[in-house]
Write a structure and sequence with these properties.
Layout (H helix, E strand, L loop, with lengths): L2 E7 L10 E10 L4 E4 L6 E8 L2 E4 L3 E4 L4 E4 L5 E5 L5 E9 L14 E2 L5 H16 L4 H23 L1
Antiparallel strand pairs: 1-2, 2-9, 3-8, 4-7, 4-9, 5-6, 5-8, 7-10
């Protein structure tokens, strides 16, 4: 089955400008691992592929390879499956934001193909670590690292396109 090596949650709703991290994790997935949320979730999601390919069912099936990422807005259908024989590796972060949040120009329910990045992975690791340790002002650190992630992915996709 699914091995969740790291995941952690924030127990407050503090953040920056109405944006706060809810939870973040690092998933090691086996063949057949499936996420199926027909009505999505109440928060936003950023899902990032580190190793393997993930099959997303959006308007049609899209295969997302290593380095790809997808944003989901609240209550958008989330359906994706891991079909490979080797272990897949993913990061995710759930976050709250104002309902009209513009995702810094990113579309939701859309696969962005990008080259794999160790920087992206290390920012996710920093968020997870902050959530686990819960030191003073960790909520601000998490939110600022999330903004860091948005900025890095925005720059990266602009440079690569």
């Amino acid at each position: 089955g699914d091995i969740m090596i790291y995941n952690a949650y924030q127990d407050t709703n503090h953040g920056i400008g109405g944006v706060s991290v809810v939870s973040s994790g690092h998933i090691f997935a086996q063949k057949g691992r499936k996420i199926d949320r027909p009505a999505g979730r109440a928060d936003f999601l950023l899902f990032y592929i580190v190793k393997g390919k993930e099959h997303f069912f959006l308007d049609h099936e899209i295969i997302a390879d290593e380095g790809s990422f997808v944003f989901f807005r609240p209550f958008e259908k989330q359906k994706h499956v891991y079909k490979e024989n080797k272990t897949g590796e993913f990061y995710y972060v759930h976050f709250n934001a104002p309902i009209d949040f513009d995702l810094f120009g990113f579309k939701s329910s859309f696969v962005y193909h990008s080259k794999p990045s160790t920087t992206v992975c290390s920012i996710f690791e920093e968020i997870i670590s902050e959530l686990q340790k819960k030191q003073p002002a960790y909520e601000l650190f998490c939110a600022s690292k999330l903004f860091n992630l948005f900025a890095f992915l925005a720059r990266k996709t602009k440079k690569e396109s």
